[in-house]
């Protein structure tokens, strides 16, 4: 079975606000793509993300984007194509549950290693999104440099 994972977290803001913080490149650049995000996450778009901790621009293809519900992304990972699916669920208490699932690596040591790195990255993204959307704090600022 090829490597795959899912991470999830709750952000104490309405789903529309959380979704916008992910699709808006200006906000995404503040807490995740700290080297800069270019392009809004909309169906058919090819956007780019750059990370201070892993220099180099990553082209990202937006496969699907359903307002306030779901975003599906694909890119060339270190070990092949990778697909990430983000779901946004409005909870009864006003919070948003964000789940990120990723798959697509080969079932070998290099594929598993690449998947572990991305799992770590998506976990950091969720933690950083929570701090940004709830408090305007960039947790990644200075983290890697």
Q: What is the CATH homology-level superfamily? A: START domain
CATH class category name: Alpha Beta
> How would you classify the helix and strand content by structural class?
alpha+beta
- The N- to C-terminal Cα distance equals 36 Å
- SS element count, helices: 3
- Label the overall shape: globular
Strand content: 35-45%
- What level of helicity do the residues show? 25-40%
Radius of gyration: 14 Å
Oligomer: single chain
What does this protein structure show overall?
This protein is of the alpha+beta class. The chain contains three helices and seven strands. Strand 4 and strand 5 form a beta hairpin. Helix 1 (15-23) crosses helix 2 (25-31). It is globular. The model has no long low-confidence stretch (mean pLDDT 92).
List keywords for this structure.
145 residues; Alpha-D-Glucose-1,6-Bisphosphate, Chain A, domain 4; 7 strands; 30% helix
How is the secondary structure organized here?
Elements: E1 4-11, H1 15-23, H2 25-31, E2 36-38, E3 46-51, E4 54-66, E5 70-77, E6 80-90, E7 96-103, H3 109-135
Antiparallel strand pairs: 1-7, 2-3, 3-4, 4-5, 5-6, 6-7
Helix pairs in contact: 1-2
What's this model, at a glance?
This protein is of the alpha+beta class.
């Amino acid at each position: 079975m090829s490597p795959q994972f899912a991470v999830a977290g709750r952000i104490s803001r309405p789903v529309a606000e959380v979704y916008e913080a992910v699709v808006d490149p200006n906000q995404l650049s503040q807490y995740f793509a700290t080297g800069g995000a270019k392009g809004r996450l909309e169906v058919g778009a090819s956007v780019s993300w750059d990370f201070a901790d892993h220099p180099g621009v990553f082209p990202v293809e937006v496969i699907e984007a359903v307002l306030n519900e779901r975003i599906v992304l694909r890119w060339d990972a270190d070990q092949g194509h990778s697909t990430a699916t983000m779901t946004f669920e409005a909870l009864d208490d006003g919070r948003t549950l964000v789940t990120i699932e990723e798959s697509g690596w080969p079932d070998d040591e290099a594929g598993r290693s690449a998947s572990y790195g991305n799992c770590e990255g998506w976990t950091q993204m969720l933690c950083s999104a929570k701090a940004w959307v709830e408090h305007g704090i960039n947790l990644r600022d200075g983290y890697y440099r």
